[in-house]
Recover the amino acids of this structure.
């Protein structure tokens, strides 16, 4: 498993080593011990989601408020999609910077999206299925939505024709509007949310 940094601090690209034979292949999709070694922070799965979409569907840009904060380990398990992450952490040295990857079921390539970073994707095939392994359970009312066509972000979706969007995504605020309304987490808040919890105090043995 090869873990490399992206343009967005705290976000990583994970490429598994495929073991192939005449039957097909095998690979390790997620190794939390290796993630912790590479990132310096634990990743503890709390929820797993899947979404299935037709070709040329755009979902995003989505994030979660801090608190509760939510990191995502994102993998395409069927078909292919263009995946984009964007730094939405106010005060981050790379605020507004994005990174793109093509995720497909054949390669097993995944992306680790840290707290406060936005995520979205455009499906390149019909019946594309994406898997999200999440560091926190869903809390209603905490999702942050950013317009995927915000001109200030200028994200390279490269859709062959106008993509299918939900009304919620199409009507989502721009980054500037989200900043003005206080929707976005700060760089310091997300760094605190990503820090490992201290161990409980040692109270000694009691006989």
């Amino acid at each position: 498993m090869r873990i490399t940094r992206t343009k967005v601090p705290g976000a990583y690209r994970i490429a598994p080593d495929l073991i192939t034979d005449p039957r097909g292949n095998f690979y390790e999709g997620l190794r939390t011990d290796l993630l912790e070694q590479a990132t310096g922070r634990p990743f503890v799965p709390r929820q797993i989601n899947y979404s299935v979409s037709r070709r040329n569907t755009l979902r995003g840009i989505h994030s979660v408020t801090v608190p509760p904060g939510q990191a995502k380990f994102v993998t395409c398990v069927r078909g292919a999609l263009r995946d984009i992450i964007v730094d939405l952490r106010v005060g981050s040295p790379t605020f507004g910077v994005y990174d793109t990857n093509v995720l497909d079921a054949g390669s097993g390539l995944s992306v680790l999206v840290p707290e406060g970073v936005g995520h979205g994707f455009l499906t390149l095939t019909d019946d594309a299925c994406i898997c999200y392994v999440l560091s926190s359970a869903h809390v209603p009312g905490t999702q942050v939505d950013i317009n995927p066509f915000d001109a200030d972000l200028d994200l390279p979706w490269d859709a062959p024709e106008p993509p299918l969007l939900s009304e919620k995504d199409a009507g989502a605020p721009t980054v500037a509007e989200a900043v003005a309304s206080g929707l976005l987490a700060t760089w310091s808040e997300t760094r605190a949310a990503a820090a490992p919890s201290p161990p409980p105090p040692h109270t000694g043995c009691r006989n």
About this structure: The chain has one domain: 2-193.
